[in-house]
Amino acid sequence: MKQLESKSLVLLQHHLKALRLPTIGAEAEKVARRAASDNADHLTYLLQLTELELLERERRAAERRLKAARFPTLKSLSSFDFAARPSVNKVMIAELARCAYIDARENVLLVGNPGTGKTHLAIALSAAACAKGYRVRFSRVTELITHLIEARDERGLLRLKGQLAKLDLLVLDELGYVPASKVGAELLFDVISTAYERTSLIVTTNLPFESWTEVLGSERLTGAALDRLTHRCQIIETKGESYRLRDAKVRARRPKASTGPASPGETDGAPFSPLEGGEETR
Ligand code: ADP
Ligand code: MG
To answer: Does 2 have pLDDT greater than 80?
Structure first.
């Protein structure tokens, strides 16, 4: 009897491996013991195992999406101090975190001076999208342009554009810090126009619209890019002084020996959760 059992177990593991059900393979015996002691029937046992497999699959997929998004660092909405940035409407940001704009293929533009939380909000919003099952990629504009130029030289441009086309949301961070070369501007424009009404964009920039020509070079290209970007777009202005500066002032004012509560900007040491209320995944 014992011998038969272990033979069946080996076979079972083999079948589960062939069916690609690793979590069921790992948990089957333990859950079977629990089911026996709880007097659970066969269907309940099967249900418990399939639930475990599904949960583990979703967890791994979420991990993969987060990795594929290539965030430089993780930021959450719960660590964003809305009181310090009154021009940013908390209700509007919470609504954006629900991602309806992605389903509608709309864009989000974050405009404001350096240090005012544009990248923080862009990461928090796109991480929220990641958690909901959307395919996201975060890119600094200068890095994306470099990638595009390299891919063009190595004849990999189609492949890279293919990857971008599969995304639900592309973040273009820091548009305008460095003016693009003519080729770079054209490649960037191509990304923006391909994304139009297909992939949502979150763009962060310190430049007012009238200065975009300085980055993209040609007025014709700038007009066309702005036209597509802003056609269906929510604009968020992060007005006011730099949070880094404010943070530094708070630190400077605080007595040296003090071990008071964390100052603003230090709040992201907590385990990462892109959403405050742990919303449902898609
Ligand atoms: P920007 O992209 O506008 O230059 P960042 O988003 O990089 O600014 O913000 C600079 C730093 O300050 C980051 O560490 C960010 O997390 C923090 N920060 C900015 N605004 C806030 C805020 N309102 N609440 C909490 N942290 C903030
Ligand atoms: Mg930034």
So the answer is: no
- With a CB cutoff of 8 Å and minimum separation 6, the contacts of 57 are 23
Nearest CA to ligand 1 atom 14: 265
- Nearest-atom index, ligand 1, CA of 112: 3
Whether the pLDDT of residue 268 is over 60: the answer is no
Residue 205 CA to ligand 2 center (angstroms) comes to 8
Q: Say yes or no to pLDDT of 272 above 70.
A: no
48/51 Cα distance (integer angstroms): 5
Percent of the chain at pLDDT > 90 equals 74
**What ligand has the least distance to the C-alpha of 114?**
1
Residues with CB under 5 A from ligand 2 (ion): 119
Higher pLDDT, 220 or 50: 50
Check: CB of residue 176 under 8 Å from CB of residue 212: yes
- For Cα atoms 192, 198, 200, give the angle at the middle one, nearest 5 degrees: 65
Residues 124 and 66 sit within 8 Å (Cβ to Cβ): no
Structure pTM? 0.82
Nearest residue (CA) to ligand 1, atom 23:
81
Kindly tell me the burial class for residue 262, based on how many C-beta atoms sit within 10 Å of its own C-beta (0-12, 13-18, 19 or more): exposed
pLDDT score of 158: 92
Residue 191 has pLDDT above 50, yes or no: yes
Using alpha carbons, select from 261, 242, 228 the residue that is nearest to residue 112. 242
Q: CA torsion 242→246→248→249, rounded to 10°? A: 140
Please give the pLDDT value at position 277.
Answer: 35
Cβ < 6 A, ligand 1 pocket: 75, 79-81, 84-85, 112, 114-120, 204, 238, 243-244, 264-265
